[in-house]
Amino acid sequence: MTSSTTPGLARFNTLEESALAAELTEVCASSVWGSKLLAQRPYATVDSLFAASDAAMAELAVEDLEEAMAGHPPIGRPKPGDPTSAREQRGMAGASEELKAELLELNLAYQEKFGHVFLICATGATAEFMLDRLKNRIENEPGAEREIVRTELGKINRIRLTRLAGEGGDTTHTKSGGQA
What we know:
Blueprint lengths: L6 H8 L2 H11 L3 H9 L6 H14 L2 H8 L13 H6 L8 H18 L12 H11 L4 H24 L15
């Protein structure tokens, strides 16, 4: 991302607070994360917005991470009618029914163990890659897995913020869901 101010960033900096708060909720469901980004406006560069996002994500308490994760449907089941969710989970499109069934089974086991959906930055990832990561991560201890989830959420937030505050300020993402 460029370090200069983009039209999208100018919009981000000047948008009415409640409207931007709603858009930030579509980026990340954590109200604490969104509040922290709002409080630091204006941003001189998209990179400074990313840094603020990363810092806010690093500071989230367990409850705030749970709130952020609640905004994501399981891999392989994007929110119906949600173009962002479908775009983010595009790697599942060519998956065999057998692979989808295995992913669903492991997703359920993961949810049983950790109490939340398996979260991964799925943009550009194949179904096979996501299944492999799920198989590896289900073996983690809860504390270690929570930190991996925090990192994955940060990646997803950056992708979504790029769409929101990048060149042109693309706001066609109005409904989010799924992993980025």
